[in-house]
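Appendix B, record 7
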Amino acid sequence: MKKQEVNVYSVLGNANQELARELRDTNYYIVGGVVSNILADSETSYDLAHRLVQPRPNLELSNYRTDGTIRDLDILILSPLSSSHLKYLEKVVLESVEGLLIPSVFALKEHEQKRNELKANLLDWVSRRTIDENGVLRYELFPLSQEVSRESYEPWHFQTKNSLRPVPILHPVAHLAAYRIRSISGLRAKDKQKVELMELNIKNNAPELFENLDETGLIEWFRFSESIKNMIESDTKFGSKDTLDEFIFKSKSKLLNFVESNPKMVTLSYNKFISKILNSIMRS
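Structure tokens (predicted):
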């Protein structure tokens, strides 16, 4: 099949239109590299009063990564949905962008008050966004847990010239913080340069966004980031102050950091067989 290269922002409007139709009153957000590219651009401006991120009109991002793979379109839904519903939405989005992007749709998970510790230790490599029966939102990465406010998920938007409606995204600082709290290894090696560039340009163009983090609820995201960082950097060994859960957390963190920092291992992750094992851990 002939490679069809397009500007991501030329097809994003179609996906956004279909998502709005399917989800109606449910909050959803475009996340990941499509948004990072906007926030990392020095010419992006911000309308704080209307919660708008304004990319320059000629901003481009190829639907192909530099390694030749098709770029993902990551979509977060602020509600728990069944796996079948998520797969259905991925199909809808895939058709709306005519296969030019690979949709990845993920939703909140239901909070388990008493999780199986063995299962959690085995499966928790990336953080979980959860909601409980009272509507309390959390970031969880066993054995860590952090309640986050609904205010921190108040949507922002950006507009592309080919979209009929504004595209919903997280608060720019929340988008930035999410890179630091999504993995048991902390900020991933492959994301470090991108995150630093986003932070630099957001601070240059809209320093106010980093103020009053208590009011926006974003301070809770940074607290969770600090919890991950502190556990990773702790010098204690199992048998002293560490619990078994903390020891396993740090061991997994070191292992994942090694894998993600090793170019050969990262290349292996794109192998069809290996990717089935590493996909949920090393997801772009």
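Remarks on this record: The first helix runs from residue 8 to 23. The radius of gyration is 19 Å.
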